[in-house]
Structure formats: C-alpha cells, structure tokens
Amino acid sequence: GIVLAARRGGSEAGKAPTWLIGLGLIIVWQGVSVLFHMGVDHMPIEKAFFFSVDTGLSIGFGSVRVETNVSRIFNTIHVMIGAGGAGALLAIFASSLVEASRDAASDELAKALIPLSEERKTGIGTRVVENIESAIPVSLLVVWICLGTAYGLVYEEWE
C-alpha cells in the first residue's frame, strides 16, 4: 500500500503522492515548532528555525537553549515526533528500494524471455522515474538537516 504509493507517486485512485504528504507533514511539524519558539521564547525566525531542526532531529548542539518548562516539554514531544517521523520515512524508502529491486529483477527475467519490442523499450524509463520519486522524502530530510547545519555554521559561528 504505502510503498507502492511511494514508488508510483501515489497516482492510484487520485491519491496525493506519499512523498508529497511526507513533505507536508515535515513542513507542518517544523513550522509549528518555529512559530512556537517565536511566540513563547521570543526567538527571531532564523534562530527558531535552527533550534527547530536542531532539537526536532535530536541533533542537540546546545548552542541555543530555552529557559521555560513549557518549552522543554514542547521540545521533548517535538523530538519524539521527529524521531518517529524520520524512522518512518527511512522505512518507507528502504521498503520501496527492496520492492523496486524485486520488480527490476522480475522485469529483467521477463525481458530475457521475450523478444525486444517497442513496449519493452519504452517501459525502462518509467521504472527510473518511480525510483526517483521514492527517494524524494529522504532527500528532502537530508536537505533540511543540511540547511540547519549550514545555518549553525554561519549564525552560531561554529569553527
């Protein structure tokens, strides 16, 4: 179900692609945290963004801190959601790769048994696009982590 939707971009029965749903959830998850820290901890947006990524993925460099118990409780919940979400995205990606490998092996066996036809020539590119679509959620997660780290390097003046 989920893996197939991830591989095919979720086009079955008009559903949104799994990677798009994952991206939306990441934006909401991080956006809520950024808004929380801007409102409760009075952080500027760039500091709230950095802190959201830093705590949400449990990287925890410790260069930005909160002082209130409400913020500490919020961050604990934020980390638990982030760890679960990152784990789920990685599981979907890994399952998608396994299924894609099985499909590719089965396709290769079928192709070896039939003569080269126009249908065989045109089906190869479709599989590549499906595999790229299944890598999008993990790629977005990596980009998000890199943005937070780059921000830390510049704003926090890490050496």
UniProtKB/TrEMBL annotation:
Domain Potassium channel: 29-98
One Pfam family linked to the record: Ion_trans_2
Heme in keyword set: no
Domain of life: Eukaryota
Keywords from the UniProt entry: Membrane, Transmembrane, Transmembrane helix
Transmembrane residue ranges: 16-36, 73-94, 135-154
Keyword Calcium: no
InterPro entries: K_chnl_dom
Protein name (record): Potassium channel domain-containing protein
